[in-house]
Design a protein that fits this description.
Layout (H helix, E strand, L loop, with lengths): L1 E6 L2 E3 L5 E9 L4 E9 L6 E7 L4 E3 L7 E6 L4 E6 L8 E9 L4 E3 L3 E5 L2
Parallel strand pairs: 2-11
Antiparallel strand pairs: 1-3, 3-8, 4-5, 4-9, 5-6, 7-8, 9-10, 9-11
Length: 116
């Protein structure tokens, strides 16, 4: 099994930046892909970005340009750098992993609120 802990959320003004972190523990060698998702109130959860174990990143079209996903294998942590934040970025952000055995695990989420 894999355990995920997100951190880094909070309140930020429009135009500001935040960096979210997703720390993995447990069967980390089995992780093939790590992704960030978000869910705004009253909306469905949506993909933000993914990164493979080898570092290949992919982004949802609407997230390209302002968000950057990266990983630090030494720390077993995946980051989501979010710049030029807008009120519509307000959501709970979740980390999710897909393993080589086709299992998936979610973190508990971290809240991001963009407001003046």
């Amino acid at each position: 099994q894999v355990q995920l802990v997100e951190s880094g959320g909070g309140l930020v003004q429009p135009g500001g930046s935040l960096r979210l972190a997703c720390a993995a523990s447990g069967s980390i060698r089995s992780i093939a892909v790590t992704g960030w998702y978000r869910q705004a109130p009253g909306k469905q959860r949506e993909l933000v970005a993914t990164v493979t174990s080898s570092g290949t990143a992919n982004y949802a079209d609407s997230m390209k340009g302002r968000f950057t996903i990266s990983r630090d294998n030494a720390k077993n942590t995946v980051y989501l750098q979010m710049n030029s934040l807008k009120p519509e970025d307000t959501a709970a952000y979740y980390c999710r992993v897909f393993t080589t055995s086709a299992s998936t695990y979610w973190g508990q989420g971290t809240q991001v609120t963009v407001s003046s």
